[in-house]
TrEMBL record:
Keywords: Signal. The keyword Nucleus does not apply. Gene3D superfamilies: monomeric porin ompg (2.40.160.40). GO terms for biological process: oligosaccharide transport. This is Porin. GO terms for cellular component: cell outer membrane. InterPro entries: Bact_OM_Channel_sf, Oligogalacturonate-sp_porin.
Length: 520
């Protein structure tokens, strides 16, 4: 048996351009708010970034938009998920001061597409004050099955045709950075884009089809952006910034607009360093899900940071395949993006009170299918939670009793308030969906069977102001999970969940999840 003390990372809890400061083995939280001067639409980006002492960097992120239906000048209202993903890169330092090369790979998701983006960056320090970089990326965007095909009546016959194309885009970036003033960094970036469709698609006419033509900006296949950014080096850990960019507004005209960004990077300090305010551990987490009856596959992945028993924060990207029995990244779209965290108050030697919060931003991937046959009602194991664009706020209070070093019991109350984007509350398939709320009561236990094995059980009772299951406003769920510490860094997680399958019958479904956790 390994002498490493098992740290359980509950599998289903997880479901519930400026570089970061270069501490070794460090995690950084980034928040950014943006606004475009002519579109007048607000948005937000949230990231967790972990950099290891051997120059690997892992970035998990998602974007949120405000003002459903392109409502202008709306701040933090009618929010919904936009896109999310993960970026992995490695910095390779060259000899004799020749700078560094940085290969990278990005995997991104939106409600109707998947993005694959490999890239290569060269960075060079000119002197103590000036540095520059060049980067090339190829961006391939694959459209989901539900968006790719449509049917139309042509010459009296119903014809199925390809309505949307996948796209391939080359991206070239040049950046110039000045750091000669101690308190500030100044950054100028120029981006150039050139792209095209990678397969043919068509627009239906009365008597035939016309081929779609790719347009990026001003009826051309090229576009460009410019950005000027100022970063204030308030401390080694906290760095706010502001930027203004020149971006295009339309694919068919030469109209351009300003895009403003304001945000900050906050580094948690060096992991497990005595110089840090608190030691912490950061984990990469991945899980694959499958419904035994609905036959839908899904994936969840992100970063989870544990602050040495003081609390935790995490970010996850959650996706699913729109078609049944499709494994992994086959026709995958985003479901929701989640930010969660909590803080531990030690009431006594064996009692811990943990106020915590989960916020989910739903992108609406798959919700607007034209028929119930293609509509993935059950892929997430929660038929009472609409997948339409919007947000869910879930504050909670958890009380744990640490009966011994190997046994913990807990209870938790969570209030879940679900807001659906105002313009997406009604459609022809699912009807009308309004904002809704429910109360959730959890009891559970975690048991360390050995230094390498842990098991857990949770029972949940849900009471809502709307139908949850079997035409009733209450429901229950059960979860059993097993966790195996395979090595000091790797943990294997297996879970089975008993969930409702239908709003209008007593049918239930088993959902299985197989996951991995990696301690950086």
């Amino acid at each position: 048996m390994s002498q490493f003390k098992l740290k359980k990372i509950p599998l289903l809890m997880f479901l519930s351009t400026f570089p970061i400061y270069t501490f070794a083995d460090q995690t950084t939280f980034q928040y950014e708010h943006n606004w475009k001067s002519m579109d007048r639409i607000h948005g937000d980006t949230i990231k967790l970034i972990h950099k290891t002492d051997d120059s690997w960097q892992y970035e998990f992120k998602f974007g949120v938009t405000e003002g459903g239906g392109n409502k202008r000048d709306v701040l933090y209202d009618d929010m919904q998920g936009g896109s999310g993903g993960v970026v992995i890169q490695k910095t390779i330092t060259l000899d004799d001061g020749w700078g560094a090369i940085i290969p990278s790979l990005e995997l991104g998701f939106s409600k109707d597409s998947t993005l694959y983006q490999p890239g290569l960056k060269y960075s060079y320090k000119i002197n103590n004050d000036w540095s520059t970089s060049f980067r090339y990326r190829y961006e391939w965007k694959k459209i989901s099955h539900a968006e790719r095909y449509k049917t139309a009546k042509i010459s009296g016959q119903q014809v199925k045709y390809v309505a949307s194309s996948n796209t391939g885009r080359n991206r070239l970036d040049w950046a110039l950075i000045y750091s000669g003033i101690k308190a500030f960094n100044f950054n100028y970036t120029f981006n150039y884009y050139i792209g095209d469709y990678t397969n043919n698609s068509y627009k239906a006419l009365k008597n035939g089809f016309s081929k779609n033509e790719y347009k990026a900006y001003n009826n051309k296949k090229t576009d460009y952006e410019q950005e000027f950014k100022i970063t204030y080096n308030y401390s080694k850990l906290f760095r706010p910034y502001f930027s203004i960019s020149d971006v295009s507004k339309s694919k068919t005209t030469d109209t351009r607009q300003a895009k403003y960004k304001v945000g900050f990077n906050y580094a948690f300090g060096q992991s497990n360093s005595k110089d840090s305010d608190f030691a912490y551990k950061t984990y990469f987490k991945y899980a694959h899900h499958y419904g035994l009856t609905s036959h839908y596959h899904g994936d969840s992945f992100g970063l989870y940071t544990d602050f040495d028993k003081k609390g935790y924060v995490g970010l996850s990207v959650n996706t699913y395949n729109q078609l049944k029995n499709r494994l992994f990244f086959d026709d995958i779209v985003s479901s929701y993006y989640q930010l969660y965290g909590g803080y531990n108050f030690y009431l006594a030697d064996q009692w811990v009170l943990t106020p915590n919060m989960e916020v989910r931003f739903y992108s609406g991937g798959g919700y607007k299918a034209k028929s119930k046959e293609n509509l993935p009602h059950y892929q997430l194991g929660d038929v009472s939670d609409s997948q339409r664009p919007g947000v869910r706020y879930s504050p909670a209070l958890k009380l744990s009793w640490l009966q011994s070093d190997d046994i913990a019991l807990y209870s938790q109350y969570r209030y879940e308030y679900r807001k659906v984007s105002r313009t997406k509350r009604e459609d022809s398939v699912q009807g009308y969906v309004d904002n809704r709320a429910r109360n959730r009561f959890d009891i559970g236990t975690d048991i360390n069977l050995s230094p390498d094995w842990n098991v857990g059980y949770r029972f949940s009772y849900l009471k809502g102001n709307y139908v949850l299951h079997n035409d009733k406003k209450h429901d229950y769920q059960q979860e059993f999970d097993i966790n195996w510490q395979a090595t000091k860094a790797w943990q294997v997680n297996l879970a089975a969940e008993d969930v409702a399958k239908s709003l209008h019958s007593d049918a239930r479904e088993a959902k299985l999840a197989l996951g991995l956790s990696y301690l950086f």
